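User: Can you predict the 3D structure for this chain?
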Amino acid sequence: MYATHSHGRRRERGVHAHGGVARKRASLSPLQVLCCSIGAIVLIANARRALSPKESYLGSFWSTTTSKPRGVKYELHTLPVEAKAVADGDTITVYVDMANPHGSGNVPREVQEAAAERIKARTTKNYQKADALQKIIVDAGYRQVPNLSGEQVLAKKYRIRLRGIDAPENSMSYGKEAKEELVKLVQGRTLKISVYDTDRYGRLVGDIECNGVFVQEHMLKKGLTWHYTAYDRRPELAKWESQARASGLGLWALPNPEKPWEWRKEKPMRKW
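Assistant: Here is the predicted structure, written as structure tokens:
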């Protein structure tokens, strides 16, 4: 009996002992709970970072940035671009629907009235009046063009200078190829333009995205433009130019390609 009673007492002490441990584990201090929670969050964040794919520059710049890049004054979203709107490898003329937040409210009253009257004239097939009204609209820097739905909308014309690159002029070696490549990239597509500045010729200077492609990156990697270091020091542009140079692509196939800014110095009478 003694052995049985002793065994029972030991079991009881064991239960109390285990119960005491359980009570001790349950009574963590608030500081300990906080430390454990922080540690778990850090572990989860590190695991997600390790599993997520690395983003390219293009993806991180255009897709994941919720705020506008530093220096951007505003964004323009264009109507589809025509082939004839491409002047050369670094300049495009675009039209922006005046419903765009940047343009709405800035249209002169006489232009608004001419646009409304022109729609009525076209509806009644009074094309002579419609043409006269179109001249008023065009002379003011606007145009009525079809949007993606085919409806006539009032749009404003902007000349865009691609920021950070300088393409050969049309009469230079690879000037024609640069223009053709830009036409092939943007024709019939809408563009997103991040506007940084206005140059001395009244052109808006900006970065352009076309169908998910950063246009300056595309042109540099094709070897059809120079990195315009006099006005832009972004290292990624220098890297893309260097890659094309190393591969001998485009104008870098020439033994000594002429710099367009030096070529223009010899022809100062023309506005570039």
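The longest strand covers residues 152-162. The longest helix spans residues 2-26.
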